[in-house]
Amino acid sequence: MQSVNIGVLGLGTVGSGTVNVLRRNIKEITRRAGRDIEITRAADRTIDKERSCDISGIHLTTDALEIVNDPNIHVVVELIGGTGIARDLVLQAIENGKHVVTANKALIALHGNELFEKAQDKGVTIAFEAAVAGGIPIIKAMREGLSANSIEWLAGIINGTGNFILTEMRDKGRDFPEVLEEAQALGYAEADPTFDVEGIDAAHKLTIMASIAFGIPLQFDKAYTEGISKISQEDVQYAAELGYIIKHLGISKKTEQGVELRVHPTLIPHRRLIANVDGVMNAVLVKGDAVGPTLYYGAGAGSEATASAVVADIVDVVRTLTTDPENRVPHLAFQPDAIVDTPILPISEVVTSYYLRIHTDDEPGVLADITRILAEQSISIEAILQKQPEDHNGIVPVIMLTQEVAEKNMDLAIKQIEELTTVEDSVMRIRMESLG
Questions:
Q1: Where do the domains of the chain lie, and which CATH numbers do they carry?
Q2: For 273, which of 27, 123, 402, 424 is 20 to 30 Å away at the CA?
Q3: What confidence score (pLDDT) does residue 57 get?
Q4: d(CA 291, CA 329)
Q5: Count of helix runs (H) and strand runs (E) in the chain
Q6: pLDDT, tens digit, for every residue of 183-209?
Q7: At what angle do helices 176-185 and 160-172 cross, to 10 degrees?
Q8: What DSSP designation does 52 have?
């Protein structure tokens, strides 16, 4: 049987890892795929440079379009990243009748609806396991392994950089700017860390998972996104005193009103398994109605961890080369004509519990004013932690945990609390999830 020829676009960290994994494990991979798989062409910005993979027998070019238009290439593996040239190349590959494997979460989150429709028309597959949580096979788990379930909610630590920073802040008592600088020095964070620490990267991944979980179109523009740059050392310590750990979570839930799609710092009980996922590791917790909570843990980034998912997608594509397109696993788990445009809830309609840190003057009646405002917005208090004045300046940190309430009610309460003359600065608000 004819070998399947692979063209790789981008020989960076993941591209090099893909070459290494495929060549090292070629015998096992061939046994699983049923056909020989060979990387015959690759495109990169520079040809003459030292690489961390064996490129012998691979024809290199600086023109990615050459590979996309090569009639001898059966599968295009897009590892360039971004949503500009990568989108154009993938669209052209689909137009040419080629299957596509990509690790590009931004491309799928922002343009997936368009790409999947085009692929459906052309009878080809777009595989994107590596786009979410690196080496963790969460896409396959939700799309196939949990297909008997009605998925109720999912929550994930899906950005290793943010998780590394919060872990260091908790374990070593360090402040955010210091740990961010170390993350950049270690290569965990880019020079501009915005995508990681402000939750954009996680929102791309959450958008993809939510579409697969609930059979809805990809809607990144409706995801609520909040980063971790405002988390202070005192918040980390107070959370620990109350039995919680702060994690940067992507959360999606299906409710009667619509689908929640949100990324933000979250207090979760320290006893939860996902609360103990530390460093640069990723984890996703999925709750199905039949199976209950299931946890998926592993490396969310890295050369060979991500390559593991890329090569697994290549194997899946090779297996489907002789399959009728109508009988393949749908891109977003549900049949294309069964995708339902369930509304995405604005963050103001989300119902959750809250951690509040309020710096107040050390005066009688302050706490009574705050609790009165909360009561007016139907906000019940679960716990209060009042600390000693800071540095003898008369400022008292008051920490409150609330019961569940709609975000819009909390917004009104916080606005009124911040208007009190006895409250010194902005109220720190962190959402809470039990994940039970």
A1: 4-135+303-338 (3.40.50.720), 139-298 (3.30.360.10), 348-432 (3.30.70.260)
A2: 402
A3: 93
A4: 21
A5: 14, 17
A6: 999 888 888 999 999 999 999 999 999
A7: 130
A8: S
Phi, psi of 138, rounded to the nearest 5 degrees: -75, -35
- The yes-or-no verdict on residue 393 having pLDDT over 80 is no
| Cα dihedral 80→83→87→90 (10° resolution) | 40
Structure tokens at 217: 């179109």
* Sole residue written with tokens 């594509």: 317
Q: Which residues of 262-300 are buried (b: 16+ CB within 10 A; e: fewer)?
A: bbbbbbbbeebebbebbebbbbbbbbbeeeebbebbbbb
> Is 205 noted as a catalytic residue in this protein?
yes
Residue 404 Ramachandran class (φ > 0 left, ψ -120 to 50 alpha, else beta): beta
Query: Catalytic: which of 140, 205, 247, 287?
Result: 205
- The candidate with the shortest Cα–Cα distance to 405, out of 359, 362, 349, is 349
* pLDDT score recorded for residue 436: 78
CA distance 249 to 431: 10
| Tokens at 302, concatenated | 């890295």
Q: What is the phi/psi pair of residue 402, to 5°?
A: -110, 165
Structure tokens at 162: 């943010």
pLDDT digit string, tens, across residues 256-301: 999 999 999 999 999 999 999 999 999 999 999 999 999 999 998 8
